[in-house]
Amino acid sequence: LDGTYNLNGNFFHTLMAGVRYAERFASNKPGLIFADFNYPVAERPSATLFPELISTNTAGFFPYTGTPSIRNYMTGVLDGTRDAAAYRSQFGITTPLPESASPLTLWDIDETTTAAYLLARFKAGRLPLEGNIGIRAVRTEEAVSGSRTIPATSTTPQTTGPIDIDTSYDDYLPSLNTRYSLRDDLFLKFSASKTLTRPDFGQMSPSLTLVPNPIDPALNQGSAGNPELSPIKADNYDLALEKYFSPANYVYATLFYKDVDGFIISSAATEVYDGVPYLITRPRNANAAKIKGFELGYTQFLDFLPEPFRNFGVQANYTYVDSETPNATLGIDTPLPNLSKHSYNVIAMYETKKLSARVAYNWRDKFLSGQANIANVGRIPFYTKDYGWLDASISYAFSDHFTLSIEGTNLTRTKRISYYGVETRPQNVYINDRQVSASITMKF
């Protein structure tokens, strides 16, 4: 609910206020049952006994294709896994399937936020200065319920017990945005604000996944969320200079600085379950960090040319980001994860009253993805290699009421490659495959 009141004052001319109430909730109630059966080493059957269930890898997925031992490994044929009972019987497994999922995979998260804001718009009389100043007050209440492992003691075995975490906190988020007109086509902008970013529900999930290594228990791994995560808070400052050649054509430069507290990173630590150690990766709040940098941008339509060329345009921007935070586990200051030092975007556009088309290429430099604890090696950082991403879209309005749109993402089927320390030690390769979608919009 929002309201506006015109003050008609010499400095503050408009007052705005509002309240907002929101509820979010999520739960994990899997319809799939995970069952495992580990043969003793001496009793493990040979793959030659099940030729119909084994094939060579044909995906050609790994980028380092010169090593046959990496490419030509054996993989399972999973056609029969839709019938779990029949599939298990082929291996002679007679242990019954669990009747329900593990309690450690079941959880509920509820979040309620209540917010109110007050904002005043101002114009400084004879000075070419205008802007707004305001504050938002937010009350957050979160409840996480599920199950967790209770470690064994000298007198009691390890058990699974309930977890119920209720938290609430209040935040006050001020903001200031100003624009000073140096000329009719040249503007200096300054903004300062305090912001709050809550963790995703997936990051707060108490679910636990364990992956035992039957060959070397020292390589047991696992992953889990962290229901005790705190929100990310930041103080933000931006200074920008904008030059307009026309209402649609302009160039800008922006300096920015952010003081961030509680940035979320993924890190691994040893945890013990059923008396067995596992290296568990969880999201955790990191130390305070500083982010600074600049952005340069340019937008130009060829409106000085005759039709149809005047409808072509281009957007381009470049961003430089420098970040650092103390890393206690590595003993050095490291960049914040998932932030590239260099990135740019280039967009080619064509715009008419009925037709809108865009082709966008986005590129980012390599970035720190997190850190891993490798058995017999210790903690090492892992990175994601630089990559580019090509998207395109086109839409046509047949009338004021009917529009057809087609969008394509990752048209070049970009591979995202992560590696440990150096590129010759690959960790993972991801492809978010080429996707094309069409939509029809009808207005009544």
Describe the structure.
- With 444 residues, the protein is mainly beta.
- 3% of the residues lie in helices and 60% in strands.
- The chain has three helices and 26 strands.
- The chain has helices at 68-71, 84-90, 201-204, and strands at residues 2-6, 12-28, 54-56, 74-76, 107-123, 129-150, 159-183, 186-197, 208-211, 221-224, 232-246, 249-261, 264-273, 276-285, 289-301, 312-327, 332-334, 342-351, 355-364, 367-374, 378-384, 387-397, 402-409, 415-420, 426-431, 435-442.
- The strands form four sheets. It has a 16-stranded antiparallel beta sheet that branches. Strands 9-10-14-13 form a four-stranded mixed beta sheet, with no helix packed on it. A four-stranded antiparallel beta sheet has the order 20-21-24-25, with no helix packed on it.
- The protein is globular.
Write the layout of secondary structure elements.
Layout: E1 2-6, E2 12-28, E3 54-56, H1 68-71, E4 74-76, H2 84-90, E5 107-123, E6 129-150, E7 159-183, E8 186-197, H3 201-204, E9 208-211, E10 221-224, E11 232-246, E12 249-261, E13 264-273, E14 276-285, E15 289-301, E16 312-327, E17 332-334, E18 342-351, E19 355-364, E20 367-374, E21 378-384, E22 387-397, E23 402-409, E24 415-420, E25 426-431, E26 435-442
Q: Provide the helix percentage.
A: under 10%
Over all CA atoms, what is the radius of gyration? 28 Å
Mean pLDDT: 87
H and E string: EEEHEHEEEEHEEEEEEEEEEEEEEEEEE
Globally, the shape reads: globular
Largest sheet: 16 strands, antiparallel
State the total count of DSSP E strands. Answer: 26
Tell me the fraction of residues in β-strands, as a range.
over 45%
By DSSP (H or I, 4+ residues per run), the number of helices equals 3
User: By helix and strand content, what is the structural category?
Assistant: mainly beta
